[in-house]
Amino acid sequence: MCENRAFVTAETHFQNTIHIARFVYNPYMQINQPAPNFNLKDLEGYEHHLTDYRGAIVIINFWSAECPHAARVDLGLMPLIEQWAGSVHLLQIASNDNEPIEMLKRVANERNVHPILYDAGHRVADLYEAINTPHIYILNAEGILRYEGAYDDVAFRQREATINYVQETVESLLKGTQAQNTHVPPFGCTIVRME
Length: 195
Prior knowledge:
- The chain has 2 domains: 1-29; 31-190, Glutaredoxin.
- It is α/β, with parallel strands linked by helices.
- It is built from 5 helices and 10 strands, in the order H-E-E-E-H-E-H-E-H-E-E-E-H-E-E.
């Protein structure tokens, strides 16, 4: 009985410590709170800091070379990025432990999507609590999280999109307003974590 009590006490202390540590900076990735800063190298070795993009809208997309949902989103998202040139930056982050850099480079070139930031050990995916590819986060020009979740409303039972959440959010931010949807559960392939 004493051993169980000691285990529960230690476990409770451990959970409380984690809760306190996470509370310091946007716990649980809350909408309308600052997004955590990060720095990652792209596939060419150039370092990118999230704060370098302050002053423009930033779309963070957790990306995959193998996921068909990520490929579908690339087809729709890249023309929008061109349309919003200069006002919106796209940071695509590859966090899957099972996708080697050579594969990432090949697929990024085939899809003409650059830069791809390499998240070795899924450090940033864990920080952002990303679970899928794609999993999208949209920040306003001040680095405040305004949207998190799915690219559009495609799902298992809905094969054609009727709402593009990314387009809706970005165009609202460009007008200085807040989009109606701020969180929609992401739909896609699970990020592979091999730990």
